[in-house]
Amino acid sequence: MSEPSTEHLLTVDELRVGFRTEDGLVQAVDGVSFDVDAGEVLAIVGESGCGKSVTGMTLLGLTRGPNARFGGRAVFDGCDLVGASDEQLRRIRGAEIAMVFQDPMTALNPVQRIGPQLAEQIRAHDDLGKDAALERARELLERVGIPRARDRLRAYPHELSGGMRQRTMIAMALSCDPRLLIADEPTTALDVTIQAQILEEVRRLRAETDAGVILITHDLGVVADVADRVVVMYAGQIVEAGTLDELFYDPQHPYTWGLLGSIARVDRPRPPRLPAILGTPPSLAAPPQGCRFRPRCPHRFAQCLELPALEARCGVPDHLDRCWLSAEEKREKRQVGGQIGLAPEERAA
Asked: Which residue has the higher pLDDT, 2 or 122?
């Protein structure tokens, strides 16, 4: 393993997370490496079950358990989060690194009012009295667009809509102005108007505090709106990584083509059928030999039985992908229409 750089806000180096089950070891995250700089938004995208959320939760020690197995490092401000003690992580969680969880329905305590839950997070890291913490909580709710914020402090979670609960979770994450925000599907339960407000809060946090952001999502529209760099994960591994423009305008991995091709385009003629990636992601307890996308890839060939390394193959040093096809072959196959996922006769048509 290479020595992590001290110039980045966060350096994740060969992170591995496995869980022992009755079916064997499920390698949910398998050798993932990336950096996050201060003031940068890094998006991690991929289908459900690819390891995105496990990666984010592991950084805060939330996947620890008797059946969990870890490897690699995740260095934040000189502290290896993978090997850190529970006490070290308690000091970091919420204050230095905050997380917006994917499911607001279960992330809030159902028998405690919203105000005390927000105030508890604030007082855990700031020397504030109860009244001052509640006032700070009210300001946070207003900041994320919740109307009648003072009244909402006395509400229980079940009295709020799913979108309002999600905004409450975002307010909680922003309460201590963290240096790194991990946002796991932060806009899933929100309509487009509130989604725009939340994305604006992410931009404001970055602009005012120079915080880094890890945005975990499958919504490429959100990625295009706020991300600086993008990491594409599949079956526990990174299959492509690069800047936003590189991923959207010159994608190198067939899986990335499939993700982009499954989005309806308003600037092109309406296709008879929206392309989709055939098949389902593999079991992480028994991943396929070689390239993990091979069983679903229409461009596979013999060499795909060997696992390609994640490296620059298109002449751009920081644009990495995990595919044996040459840059010329990728360009040629992409120009066929990017119709990955269609049956051969449909591609021919």
From this structure: 122
